[in-house]
Design a protein that fits this description.
Blueprint lengths: L8 H14 L3 H22 L7 H4 L5 H17 L8
């Protein structure tokens, strides 16, 4: 499908230069950018809230909070087993 959009000249030149630097057509560049925005909006709708931008890079690590708690508990238990002379 074809459509017409209006962009500020500066934004158009930046997009065209970035597309050329990546070796893709302007059509492909805009299509990929729009797909990314649509995925972002879809994930917002599923969770009911927007994810912070950094979550894309670190979201996979969110399940480590349980592991962190477990490790901290093990450390705490080990410190409780030390005798006073071991601490000196």
């Amino acid at each position: 499908m074809k459509t017409t959009i209006e962009l500020p000249d500066v934004m158009f030149r930046q997009a065209k230069a970035l597309a050329a630097a990546r070796g893709v057509t302007l059509k492909k560049f805009f299509t990929e950018a729009l797909e990314e925005q649509l995925r972002h909006c879809t994930s917002e709708n599923r969770t009911g809230k927007a994810e912070p931008p950094w979550m894309a890079g670190f979201g996979a690590l969110s399940d480590l909070s349980d592991e962190t708690r477990r490790v901290l508990n093990v450390i705490e238990e080990e410190f409780e087993t030390l005798s006073p002379e071991d601490g000196a």
